[in-house]
Amino acid sequence: MKTIAELLAEQTFFQGLDQGSLDFVAGCGRNVHYSAGDRILTQGEPAHTFYLLRSGSVALSFYVPGRGGVIIDTLDGGDVLGWSWLFEPYKWQFDAEARADVAAVAFDGVCLRNKCDSDAQLGYLLVQRFAKVMLARLQSVRMRMLDIYGPGTPS
Amino acid sequence: MAPSAPTDYHPVVLDRPGLQSLIDALVTDGRRVIGPTVRDGAVVYDEITQIGELPGGWGDDQGPGRYRLRRRDDDLLFGYAVGPDSWKRFLFPPVSTTWRAEVSREGVEVAPPAEVPRYAFLGVRACELAAIAVQDRVLVQTNYPDRDYAARREQALFIAVNCSSPATTCFCPSMGTGPRVGSGHDLALTEIPDPAGSRFLVEIGSERGAAIAARLATREAAPADREAAAAVWSGAAAAVSRALQADGLKDVLVHNLEHPRWDTVASRCLACANCTMVCPTCFCADFREAASLSPDHAEQHRTWATCFSVDHSQLHGGSMRWTTRSRYRQWMTHKLATWHDQFGTSGCVGCGRCIAWCPVGIDITEEAATIRATDGLTRLPAGATP
Amino acid sequence: MALALPADVRPADAMVPVPYRVVGRARETADTVTLSLEPVGSPIVTPAPGQFNMLYAFGVGEVPISISGIDAGQRVRHTVRAVGAVSQELCAAEAGAMVGVRGPFGTDWGIDSAAGGDVIVIAGGIGLAPLRPVVHELLRNRRRFRRVTVLVGARSPEELVFRGEVASWQASARITVRTTVDYATAAWKGDVGVVPTLIERVTIDPEVTTVMICGPEVMLRFTAAEVLGRGVAAERVRVSMERNVQCGVGRCGHCQLGPVLICLHGPVFPWSRVGPLLARREL
Fold first, then answer.
1. N or C end of chain A: smaller count of CB under 10 Å?
2. ipTM over 0.85
C-alpha cells in the first residue's frame, strides 16, 4: 500500500514541493473514506481540516431556507476541499456532502497552520497553491454571474 | 464564322434627332427607357420618352456634403457627373417581393415570380457599369443567385455615356473604373459639343447594341469625330482631382481596426445611412414578412437595409455593433477591405456619391488616406485633438 | 485572399420556403420545444449535422434555426427557443400546423475528419441542438472513433435540453457524458460549475482530438481557450457561430463578422478562422 507521501506526490496540487515539505505535509494527513450521502463539512462549524480528494464526488452547498441546499460547486478526484482552516475565524462557510463514495486524504489544519507560520517558505508555497484553486473557483463564479445562457423567459 | 467581337464594330455618329430615334426604337421594342432627368434640384433616373426630358444644359457642383445643380454655358444633355440615384434603384429596387403565397387548409400555393420590366438604361457612367459588375458578383455569381436581380439584369440594355464633366467628388481613375467606358455596355455614347447641337460618337459593345444601332440613321465616324471624342475622354480624365490609394489598402484597414481615427469619424457621423443608400454597390437588405390584413395571404419583401442601423446586427441578446464607431468601421472596412475576401473585388467604384450626400461631408478617401498615413496608431498622441 | 465558396450551385430559388407540417412537438424546457417536421410535398436536401434551416412561421416571419435531428426518411427536427416574435410562434405550433423551411444552409461539423481519433462535443444551453446529430452519428458509428466525450452545460437542471436522451447516452456507457449547471438543488446528480471546469477533468490526447463546441459566444471563448490550453490545435477546435441571418445565402449582409459571412462560410468554423475575429469588439 502506498504511503501518504507517495499518494501526495501523485497529485498535481502538491507537485513541485520538495521531499522534506512533502514528508512534513504527509505527516499531517491521514486516509479517510466517506460513503455517498455522508456529510463531510457543515456550515458554521470549526474548520480545522482540509481534504485532498483522491476519488469520488463532493457537492458544496449553501442552505437557503425554503429552497434547501443549493449546490454551488461540485468537486472530483484531484480537487481540494476546504480552505476555511487557513483563515480566521476558521469556520466552514458551506456544507459539503459526498455524492459518491469518497477516498481522500484529510490534513490536520492546525498542525499545518503552525508549520506555515514557522516555515514561511512552505507557507508561501501552500498559500500560492490554494490561491490558484481559489482563483479558478472565483473565475467559475464570475462566468456564472454573466448568466450567459440568456433570458430564462421570453423577453 | 464566329460572331464578331465587340471591338470589331466601327464607331458611328448620331445626331440629336438620332438620339430621339434611339429612344423611340427602344420604346418600340417594348422597353422602359430610364434616363437622367432633373427633379427636386438633382439629376435623378426615371422613365423618359423624349430627349427634352434629359438634363440639357445642367451641370452639377459637388463637394463633401454638397450637391448643387448649376446652369452650364452650353446645352450638353449629359454634362453632369452623377446624382443621388444609381441603377441599383431599378436592378435591385428599394422594395421588392421575394415571394408571395396563398395559405389554405390544404397547403400553401407559392405564386410564380412576377415578370420583371424590360429596361433600357440611358446615360450609364463607366463607374456605374463597374458598380453593376460588382453587384453581379454579389448577387448573381454565387451559388444562390438573386433571381429577381438576375432577371432584371439579363433583360436590361445598357446605353452608356462617357463622362465629360466629372465632379470634384469623383475618384474613378484611382479605382480603375473610369471615366472612360470600357466594358459592360451595349452602346457607349460620347457627347461631342457642337454649337449647332451636340452629336454623339457611338461605340458598339455588343450584338444587341449593334442591332439597335443598325436601325438608326447614323454615319460612319470621321477622323474629326474621333478626335473630338478623344478630347472629351482626355478632358474628363484630366478633370478628376480626387484619388483613393487602393493598393494595399485592405491590409492597412484590417490591421487598424482600433485606430483612433474611427473615434474621430464617429464623432462626426450621424449614422444617417445616406452613404449606403446612394452607394451603387451597397447590397444589404432585410428579408421580412410584409404585413397583410388577410390571414390567407403571405409575402416576403426584400428592402434596402443599412449597416448604420443598430438593428442591422441585432441578435436576441442585443446589437453586435451598438456604437457609431463600429458601424462606420463596418461600412468602410467592408467596402474597401473585406469585400475582397467575400467577393474578390473592391466594393468601391469611386463614384463619390457617399462624399457628396453625407450631411456632414465625411470623405471616404480622406478617411482611408489618414489611416494609411498613421498606420498602426492605436491612440492619439497626448494633447492631440481628434 | 478570397474565401472559397461552396462548390455546389443550387439552381432552385433558395428564397422560397418549402411547406412542411409539424408532426411532433416535444417540450424541452419552459421556453424551448423540439418540432418534428415532415414535408408536405418535395423535401429539402438532406442536411448534414451542423447545418441550419430558415424556419418560416406563416404571416409572422423567418428565423435561422439549427437542425437538431436528421431522421431516416425526410423528417427533420428543430429545437426552438422562444426569444422573439417568430420563435414564439414556432414554439406554439401544434402538430398539424404548417411551417416553411428553407435550407439546409451553411457548413457542417465535418465529423468524417475526426474519424480514427477522439471527439469531444461541448454544448452550452440550446447549443446542444446542432450537436445532437453529431452525437447520434458518433453513437451510430461508434467504432470509427476512439474516446467520445460529451460535455453539456446549462443554467439549471430544468433548462437542460434533451434531458432524457442525455441521460440515456450516459447510461449506455458507450460514451462519456458529463453535465454541469450554474446552480442546482440537492436533487441534481450532475456537476455544478461552468463548462471549462469540466474540461479540466477530461482526458485529452491533443494530437488526435477533435473538439466541437456550440453555445453562447462568451462560453465559446472561455471553452476554446481551455481546450487550446490543453494543446489541441486551433484547426481541430470547431465552433458554431450565431449572427443575424436573414437570407441564409450570403446576400443580405447582416451576418458579417469581418471577412466571413456566418450563413455561407459558417455557421461551423475552425477556431483558427474565427477566434481572432471574436477577439475584436463589435466587429
1. N
2. yes
